[in-house]
Amino acid sequence: MTRNIIDINCDMGESYGAWTMGNDAAVMPFVTSANIACGFHGGDPATIRKTIALAVEAKVAVGAHPSLPDLMGFGRRTMTISAQEMYDLVLYQAGAVSAFARAAGVPLHHVKCHGALYNMAATDEALSTAMARAVKDLGGHVLLYALAGSKMVTAARQLGLDVVQEVFADRAYEDNGTLRHRSLPGAMIEDEATAVARAIAMVQHGQVQSHGGKPIAVSAGTVCLHGDQPGALQFATALRRACEQHGITVAAP
To answer: Does the N-terminal or the C-terminal CB of the chain have fewer CB atoms within 10 Å?
Structure first.
């Protein structure tokens, strides 16, 4: 599916205590939705509040970014959890961000799970269903951001939940449409021009080339910008410029 409109989402609010991650204030004006860490892989109550304030000022949609309880591993280490634990993790963390958003006078717009939690659900029907059920139970027509073509998308639709299919410009894909694990060679697309070109191709042509060279069909509703990457600001500005040049409208869903 091809489009001429795209959302740019960014993982934000991942600083914790005295530890700083990313450059949220500088990147925020270039994105249209923010996925705010909930304290389990990064973030803390004060950081959630401050990041939402930045989003409100920039008119950026506020989302929750729940993860496995893994501060030491930044939420990127796989854990064995049950479907009930998935539900509890998502509802608990997104509920906290929703409360801060409400206090700031804005609704919780979406939920996008982080790291291993996201990747685990992408290929697991039970975990995907539990994730979608938690988002639905938040109420307020909260959207689920999910890996394009994954089991998360199917589960959300079966529950009548609005889902936005997500693509990644700076991550390599495997032949089956999943993201290549960060520990493997070539998992990250570090060249800015290459990443931008991939993003435009996914939006306008509905296709991305896998790490193994296979063309993969994708439906791009939102493209992820990783706020913890050193070149996040440069990539954000380049992506916005490329969207403008190709006649692509950038807006939150």
So the answer is: N
Residue identified by tokens 């403008």 is: 244
Give the burial class of 174: count Cβ atoms within 10 A of its Cβ; 0-12 exposed, 13-18 middle, 19 or more buried. Answer: middle
Return the CATH fold of 5-250. TIM Barrel (3.20.20)
CB 147 within 8 A of CB 102: no
Torsions phi, psi of 19, nearest 5?
-95, 125
Strands 110-111 and 143-147, how do they pair?
parallel
Query: Please, where are the H alpha helices in the chain?
Result: 24-27, 45-58, 83-103, 115-122, 125-137, 151-158, 192-205, 232-245
Residue carrying the six token digits 């449409």? 177
Q: Which residues contact 48 (CB under 8 A, 6 or more apart)?
A: 13, 36, 37, 38, 39, 96, 97, 100
Instruction: Give percent of the chain above pLDDT 70.
Output: 98
In total, the chain counts a number of residues equal to 253
For residue 95, give Cα distances in angstroms to 92, 139, 142, 202: 5, 10, 11, 32
Q: Convert the pLDDT of each residue in 23-75 to its tens digit.
A: 999 999 999 999 999 999 999 999 999 999 999 999 999 999 999 999 999 99
163's enclosing H/E stretch is strand 163-168
Q: What CA–CA distance (Å, rounded) separates 129 from 188?
A: 28
Whole-number Å distance between alpha carbons of 150 and 22: 28
Sign, CA torsion 10/11/17/19: negative
